[in-house]
Structure formats: structure tokens, C-alpha cells
Amino acid sequence: MNTLIWFVILYWVISVGIGLYAARYVNNSKDFAVAGRSLPMYVVTATVFATWFGSEAVLGISSTFVKEGLKGVVADPFGSSLCLVLVGLFFAKPLYRMNLLTIGDYYRNKFGRTVEILVTLCIVISYLGWVAAQIKALGLVFNVVSGGYIAMETGMIIGAASVLIYTLMGGMWSVAITDFLQMIIIVVGMVYIGWEVSGMVGGAGVVIEHAAAAGKFEFWPSPTAREMLWFFAAWITMMLGSIPQQDVFQRVASSKNEKIAGNASILGGVLYFCFAFIPMFLAYSATLIDPGMVNSLIDKDSQLILPTLIMNKVPMLAQVMFFGALLSAIKSCASATLLAPSVTFSENILKPFFPKQSDKQFLLMMRIVVLVFTAIVTIFAMNTESSIYKMVENAYKVTLVAAFVPLAFGLYWKRATAQGGLVSIIFGITCWVALELTAPEGFWPPQLVGVLMSMAGMIVGSLLPQYKGGVKTSLR
């Protein structure tokens, strides 16, 4: 094995050790799930940024930009960063005041047990693609830096197991502390490697001019109805579909106060948007530095363009900085997305079946669910052929059509009812799945139809006579 892999192993051991050290702050289930609602502004901002700056930001967005330009990355970073801004402006403060453990608790309190179960299951399912993308990226990194010595599947298992160790023990405390340190590594590493690569091509201006001439900065779709509909659907998939997610809620709920919850989300979103362009710049620089390599990988596996450039064309220090930043990005995202669905599944699905369990027993339950969920997503990652970018983008379609409308209308429409919430979910999922099966590439994007029907279901279900326990009632 080469020298780089030993630097990676050293970094990996240190970061896992820090995560395990943070576990000393976990004394109860609230510490495990939301870090005791005690995190300061700089830590919450770091964990918002680091959670979102994952494998798709470094490998997925950059490879998609090289192939399709800006119009291909409308969902992420444009939609995803706007999601965090919208959370900070409209959702963070009202949710923080409710003093909830999970986002599923909101749906139970507002719409009842049935809606709580349905939304929680949708949220958990949506994480399969997102977490699997991080596990898949870990396998890719270990394979690349070891020169093929570590197989992709072996790398996935090693990566998943090591992230599991500190997430299992320290929960949100470990995620928050490691995210803070990893944000520093991401920022420093990305800025340094950007400076290094720009020097190889004669400055950033050369790369920008070349990309502009190649049409990579064309953002808006063709002025046809179908193109505009699909463009809008891609934008809102992550912009709105990411809002009712447990990892977003955990950062809100972990804050020391509601002001921090809102401001940290906005700042984290802005930082994410700005830094997401560095991997795009790096990957496109490869078309100038080594066009032959890019042409050979562009259709075969474009996700390898950036790591191959770094491995073959930059000095060892730059390699260490890049892969340190990349591993930090993936680890922070993976730990957060392992924890989030596990906590909400434990709280909103399993806990009601064990009403007499102690808090210590509930904490054990959450840890067992983290372990089981990690095993499931690792198997899923090892058996999927989807790209990292598509896995992440597709993950949010289910929460867009099932969870966003009940959350937004429940907070801001006084006439929203439990019946409206249930009809909204049924309409949204049914119409989305029906179109995905019958016309996935048709005139109307399935997820756009799904969210529109979800809105219709909320309005109609809330305004019609209400059925409670078999008795019809009327809204006043």
C-alpha cells in the first residue's frame, strides 16, 4: 500500500477516537438524540454545514457538473442550500419552541398516531438512499487511496463499521463534536486544493472561461412547458423535500436557544452553497489538465474524475489535504444520517409498544436500531448501481410528496386537521407512485404531481366534514 493510505488510516483512527471521547457526555436519551439542547452557535453551524457537505457535494455534484453543467445541479447545491435557509426563516423557531425529541413527534401532536407512523416510515425510507450514498463513497475512497488494494465492498464495510462505532456510543454529541472538527478540515482542505489546482491550469479565470465557452454555466431550462416543469421539480425536490427530515430537525432541536436554531441553519446553508462550487471547479479543471482521463471516465464512472485527478496530478501534501477533507465530508454526513432515522424510528414507531420502559432502556433501544439500520444501508449500498448524486436526489422525493405539506400547513394554516394530514399523505404518495410506474419520463414530473396532490388532499381533507371514531363532525 502507498503512503497516502497510512495518512488516511491515521486520520481515521484519530477522528473515531474523538467521536468516542464525546460519548462521555451522553447520560440519557435526550443527550443521545439532541445533545441535551445545549449546542452553541458555532457548533450548530458547523454540524449543519458538515452534515450537508457529504459525498454528493464532493463527488456527485462535481461529476454531474462536468457532464451537464449548472442546469444538472439545480437540486443540489441550489435547492439544498435554499432548504436550509427556508428552515432558518420559517421552521426552526416554531419547531424549537415545541421542545420535541423528533420531527415525528410534531406529526403525532398535530395530526395523530396514524399520520405519525406513516410520515416516520417515509422519513426512514428516504434515508436509505442518502446514507447508502455515503457508504458507497467511503468504499470508493478506500479503493482509490489504496491503489485498488482495498476492494470497494471491503471499503464500504470498513467505513460503515468505523462510523457506526462512535455514532452508536455518542449519538448527537459525537456527531456534533466530530462535525465541528471536520468542518475545519473540509474548509482548509478544499481551499488549499483549490489553490493548488488553479496554479496548475494558470489561474481560476482560465477554468471559468473554458467552462463558460463550453456552455457549462447555462442554468435556466429551454422555454418549453415540459423542460420548465422538470427543472422546477428538480429544484423543489431537495429544497422542500429536505425540510421535514430528522437530521435537519436534530440540528434545530440541539441548539441552545431558538435564535441559534434559526441563524445557524441560515449560515450553514450559505456556507454550504459557497463551498459546493470548489469541487465543481476542481473536477472541471481536470478537463484542462488531463482531458484523456476525463474522456475515458465521463461515461464509465464520472465520480472517479476528481479523485483520479488528485491521485495522479498533485503532490502528496495536496492528496492528504483533499482526501482528509473528503473523508471528513463523508464521515460527518454518514454519522448524521445514520443517527437521524434510527432515533425517529425508535421514538415514533417502537417506543409506544413499550410504554413502561425506562429512559435507560429507551437509550439502549435507539442504539440497537442504529446498529440494525447501519447493516441494512450497507447491504443496500453494496447492491445498488445508482450514482451518488441520483441516490441523494431521489431520497427526498418520498418526503416531498408525503411529509412537507403536512408540516408546512400544520404550522401555518389554522384549519389543517388530522383528516387533512392523512388525506394529504395518501394523495401525495399514491399519485407519485402511480406516475413513477406508468410515466416516469412523461410530461409531468411524478414528484411535482405528488406534492400538488398532497396540497389538494390537505385542503380538501381539512375542509370536508371530519370523521372521528366513526362519527361525522363539521368544522366551524
UniProtKB/TrEMBL annotation:
Its membrane topology: Multi-pass membrane protein
Transmembrane segments: 6-27, 39-66, 78-96, 117-135, 147-168, 180-208, 228-245, 266-286, 316-341, 362-382, 394-413, 420-438, 444-464
InterPro entries: Na/Glc_symporter_sf (IPR038377), Na/solute_symporter (IPR001734), Sodium:Solute_Symporter (IPR050277)
Gene3D superfamilies: Sodium/glucose cotransporter
Record keywords: Membrane, Transmembrane, Transmembrane helix, Transport
Compartmental location: Membrane
Similarity remark: Belongs to the sodium:solute symporter (SSF) (TC 2.A.21) family.
PANTHER family: SODIUM-SOLUTE SYMPORTER-RELATED (PTHR48086:SF7), SODIUM/PROLINE SYMPORTER-RELATED (PTHR48086)
Annotated protein name in UniProt: Sodium:solute symporter family protein
UniProt organism field: Undibacterium aquatile
Source organism phylogeny: Bacteria, Pseudomonadati, Pseudomonadota, Betaproteobacteria, Burkholderiales
